[in-house]
Amino acid sequence: MKKSLIITAALLALSSCGLKEEFQPVFTGKYPAPEPERYWSDEDFGRITSIADLVSGYTIGQPKVLGSTVIKGTVSTTDRPGNFYKSFYIQDETGGIEIKVGKNGLYNDYLLGQTVYVDCEDLTLGMYGYKSGNNGGMGMAQLGFSDPTGSYETSYMEIPLLIDAHVLRGNPSELHPVTPAVITSASQLPNPKTATQATSKLIGSMVTLKGLTYGNEVFCLLYLDSNQDKKSYTNRVFLSSSNSSDPTCGITTWAMSKEKMTEYLYSGIWDECKVGSGNTYAEDEEGNTLTVGSYRGENGLYDASINGFNGIERTAYSVSQYFKLGSTDIQIRTSGFCKFCDVEIDPDVLSGRATIDVTGVLTLYQGSFQLVVNNIDDITVNR
User: Fold this and answer.
1) Is the predicted pLDDT of residue 6 greater than 90, yes or no?
2) What is the pTM of this model?
3) Could you give the residue range(s) of every CATH 2.40.50.140 domain in the chain?
4) Which of 273, 305, 327, 346 has the fewest CB atoms nearer than 10 Å to its CB?
């Protein structure tokens, strides 16, 4: 039986080869010209809504599926250096907003300074980074699709056909790069606890903050296993002033690639940092508080198996380096996957002998300012 099946398969293969040769298509060299790519302009839309007006329709905790609305803005970010991921910002004269596209290489399609129109019908307006209570505050309004998992208020569009239906490009030969607002004093900034893109045109927009001093503090969130529950306190390690005797946790780079993170980890500088979040810390079976150092096995590697976790996960991590504009905290947030993540911060900046000027998108996370730069060239040292 098996032999007859093999023979039948072989005969079918031979016959298909014969058919393939007999019925090869004839190429004449004449093809219809491709349709010219369409670029959009104001004349294609009846009414354009400002970004501030769009965001004003959002209510905290209530993501909103939008009706027939079109916004227009200028592309202010690029994912080419890797500090923005699968999304980009646009801004108009009233503020800026993140468009959660959901694909890589956006810099090829949405150029810095290019006009983009967003057909918002059936998109979801949501917020990321809001936290209630005295220690919280506003986050950032975003445009995307509804998140079917319910974990976030918005998700990426992802499907090319849907992206092209909602994100409409203006003529790429007519670029108008954004001019950043120059901020020299914290008095020029809104209250980060209450400000939104609806109330301040600086939020979500490109700004240049001048004369920042190093704040001697970092924030980074490590996981024991990113494939398990990321919100569980038993799976989290906060690298911050509240969890280390050194508020910088020894991190002198803008962020950490996997290799740099491993280097920091094996230096032992995080061994005292507790596993947990807030005031709730993980314990071993004997009731001892677990720390990063608890996972250092007999072989010296951080892969000891405790409470279902097999060590500290080695991967790239984003870092918030704290700076100050006057007495106001400004976090410079950098991805561990960007091309400049392992660049060392200038020693004169770390020591307080020099300040920096930084250009980036001004965002909010839990009522705190975060600045996200396009590239390392957006940071200038003043000696």
Assistant:
1) no
2) 0.89
3) 42-169
4) 327
